[in-house]
Amino acid sequence: MSGSILEVKNLTTFYKTRMNEKVCSVDNVSFNLENGKSLGIAGESGCGKSTLAMSVMGYYFPPLFYESGNIIIDGKDITSLEADVIRTTVLGTDIAYIPQAAMNALNPTRKIIKFIEDVIKAHNLDMTKKDVYDLARERFNVLNLPEKVLDQYAVELSGGMKQRTVIAISTILKPKVLIADEPSSALDVSSQKIVIRLLRELMEKGFIRSMVFITHELPLLYNVTDDIMVMYAGEIVERGSAKEMVFDPIMPYSKGLMNSIIVPEEGTRGHVLQAIPGAPPNLKIKYEGCRFQERCRYKNECINLPLEEQSAGTGRTFKCRLSEKKLRDLYKKDESASGKSQNYKTGGTVTEAAV
Fold first, then answer.
1. Is the dihedral of CA 282, 21, 30, 246 positive or negative?
2. What angle do CA 11, 15, 21 make, to 5 degrees?
3. For labelling, which of 46, 166, 323, 354 has a CA lying 20 to 30 Å from the CA of 146?
4. How far is CA 332 from CA 322, 325, 339, in A?
């Protein structure tokens, strides 16, 4: 099957503070996810990645509020649905969510099978306890998770096992779209590799059709996703294929993200890390222009034009006042001045050592 399984159009959501101030964490965001594909969302802490994930679920609780836009899953617009309808007909089947603190999402006083019963019976009251147990046992076996986990408490499981269990519970109803919010951030390298393999298996075996994977680690996304979007201060500032975004970013913020991390790839080992100066803008303020401008090393080159999304080839877009050619010329000038290449095109692939 082809076509978009998820379409987000001009979505704006905000938080309301105790002082009744509006904090716009997702501002006029639009993107689509193709059926059978995986999309990565990257950006520094506080840029709005997790808020975007929760907003796309269409299930809002104060202090998070919906303002405008549309969320369409497999042709169905869920934006205007009541919360109870979303909970019983959308969550778990059309779209599922693995929270950022997944290892702490399980009540330590309940056995794992009880969580699965709650998820299934919210959608199918006719299933008996035996039916639920048989389905859970079959799913755990397919995903190489020990069956004994079903009769254990969360406190009896290791961190990696908790994470894998939460993933299995979230996908028990075969959702069309899975949103994984930094599912490997609190794990050691070995456990990260297991979790990433599990997510790949879920797609290969048809338990999920498409996936949104959120993290701040661009090289990790290269090994997990087809496309990557970079988010900054509530906006999507660049999108392209995983290879393009990791090895050849265009927008200065995306370039800064790559320059601020180590990629253990031949040809980049002599690379000097470069921090992005300054801090993200205050999202209580409504910005009309470039939100990255005050931190951008090329701000003196900016021309006084409205900030618009630019195209840089099939499926690739970025937000900047400077053209792609102008930016690439500036990058080449910097490389010549420093005597070191900042280009990540090595002809190979990002190492999977950390995956």
1. positive
2. 120
3. 354
4. 15, 11, 10
List Cβ neighbours of 349 (8 Å cut-off, separation of 6 or more).
Answer: 222, 265
Say whether pTM exceeds 0.85.
yes
Per-residue pLDDT averaged across 331-350, rounded?
Answer: 62
Listed as own residue / partner, the contacts of 111-115 with beta carbons closer than 8 Å and 24 or more positions apart are 111/150, 111/151, 111/152, 111/153, 112/149, 112/150, 112/151, 112/152, 112/153, 112/154, 112/165, 112/169, 113/150, 113/151, 115/169
The total of other beta-carbon atoms located within 10 Å of residue 134's CB is 12
Q: What is the pLDDT of residue 304?
A: 74
Q: What is the 3-state secondary structure (H, E, C) of 290-351?
A: CCCHHHCCCHHHCCCCCCCEEECCCCCEEECCCCHHHHHHHHHHHHHHHCCCCCCCCCCCCC
Structure token digits, residue 240: 């392209």
User: Distance between CA atoms of 196 and 220, rounded to whole angstroms?
Assistant: 9
Q: With left for phi above 0 and alpha for psi between -120 and 50, is residue 334 left, alpha or beta?
A: alpha
Q: How far apart are CA 195 and CA 192, in angstroms?
A: 5
Instruction: Say whether pLDDT at 258 is over 90.
Output: no
Give alpha helix (H) positions in the chain: 49-56, 83-89, 112-121, 129-142, 159-170, 189-204, 218-222, 242-247, 252-259, 324-338
Q: Is the peptide bond before 277 cis (omega within 30 degrees of 0)?
A: no
Tell me the average pLDDT of the chain: 87
Q: How many CA atoms lie within 13 A of 229 on its CB side?
A: 24
What's the DSSP call for residue 153?
B
